[in-house]
């Protein structure tokens, strides 16, 4: 069957596959997220912070709130602005309306005050789970020794 295909068509098909492969490879290299975010620019240069460091700081800030059990943070950039997506696992008694503004303000304060960032970009909170409240004490499971038998 391959012998029936003229050599020019085979060459065109191979060239098309190679071109497509290199276009996809180039596109994936360009689309790869940056590992660092620029905190601020001074007269003598700029200061950058690793995305992982930002994610750790934001997660610790979130988990300092008693309403939050766990926080998973993803920091990215789009158009030169930082975008933060925070996935939260909350306690059953948490009321997100009550503390979401405080949480946003606390994260902004940490990023601008401690890390010196000029622009913290946008923050998106996503509730991904609700954890059950811990019970006060587990029920007794030990068997009690029988007391002295009275006749």
Tell me what you see in this structure.
By secondary structure, this protein is an alpha+beta fold. It contains three helices and five strands. The strands form two sheets. Strands 3-4-5 form a three-stranded mixed sheet, with helices on one face. It has a two-stranded antiparallel sheet with strand order 1-2. A hairpin with a 2-residue loop joins strand 3 and strand 4. Helix 2 (51-63) crosses helix 3 (96-114). The radius of gyration is 28 Å and the shape is flat.
- The count of strands amounts to 5
Radius of gyration: 28 Å
Portion of residues in beta strands equals: 25-35%
Compute the number of helices.
3
Main β sheet profile = 3 strands, mixed
| Quaternary structure state of the chains depicted | single chain
Structural class: alpha+beta
Question: Distance between the terminal alpha carbons, to the nearest Å?
Answer: 102 Å
Pattern of helices and strands: HEEHEEHE
Provide the helix percentage: 25-40%
Which consecutive residue ranges, at least 5 long each, have pLDDT under 50?
A: none
Overall pLDDT confidence: 82
Overall shape? flat
| Strand line-up in the sheet with most strands | 3-4-5
